[in-house]
Amino acid sequence: MTAPRQAAEEAVYRFPHRHLLGIEGLSPEHISFLLDLADSYVEQNRKPDKKTDLLRGRTVINLFFETSTRTSSSFELAGKRLGGDVMNMSVSQSAIKKGETLIDTAMTLNAMHPDVLVVRHPDAGAVKLLSEKVNCSVINAGDGMHEHPTQALLDALTIRRRRGRIEGLTVAICGDILHSRVARSNIHLLTTMGAAVRVVAPPTLMPCAVERFGIEVTHDMEDGLRDCDIVMMLRLQNERMQGMFVPSTREYFRFFGLTREKLAVAKPDALVMHPGPMNRGVEIDSELADDIDRSVIREQVEMGVAVRMACLDALTREQTGNAD
Length: 324
Ligand code: ASP
What we know:
Shape: globular
Mean pLDDT: 92
Distance between the termini: 29 Å
Order of helices and strands: HHEHEHEHEHEHEEHEHHEHH
Largest sheet: 5 strands, parallel
Bound molecules: aspartic acid
Number of helices: 12
Low-confidence stretches: none
Structural class: alpha/beta
Strand content: 5-15%
Oligomer: single chain
Strand order of the largest sheet: 7-6-5-8-9
């Protein structure tokens, strides 16, 4: 029996959910379970033989209604490394007739008996709606501005491996908070796991009443970054903006772009993160993004495969009728 399999066997029934639709509502134990399992897959992924037969005979369908590089490729690799059959479907934006097409597509795929559907959709709530219509497990790979749970899990795994814990750390999430599903999932995960979260954005890119999540809100990078352990930068989500939210990208970089000067007020060993894709010179200085002493951006990508393996593993072993 492989080490990850054994770890998973020992921890069986510690993730009693049929779907992974968001981080909101997951307990600290369930989050820790996924992170522990993912940790064992990190080790497996560094070996020459990366493959197991845990998902042998199982079918995973990646259904992407929005473009993706990291998320779709890492789900594909995760499914294949676990020995499953993986099918990738990307549905072009122009082909979407909202609602009807989503459900029609889901019902068509459902008839082919997949075990897991991994779904990305531009509308918040669309993945949950789809999960109510199919018999298999559904993983949310990003639904509009709502949640991106596997991103928050891979961020947490990166932090936990680097710092040994999440509890008690101060994490500054900076940039386009308003349009970011990454920010939402991270706020839920980090606060659930006992970290202090600060969000930093211009007023136009800050959601209303975001303090209700028990986080600190500031419009000033220096205030937000002071003494923090982790700096998480976000992309300006231009595709979700109607009209102008910032005067210019140059001005945005001046006030909200992460540079060495701004980072100087954080803890001396503060880590820099970014979910990708990065706009170099807009939200982050290009040279800083590549500095392996400060930036863990590439490590985040590595953790992404392990986290997605853990999610596929956890959900398929729970396919015994447990409701979400
Ligand atoms: N890749 C992340 C997402 O899908 C972040 C981004 O696109 O900026 O939400």
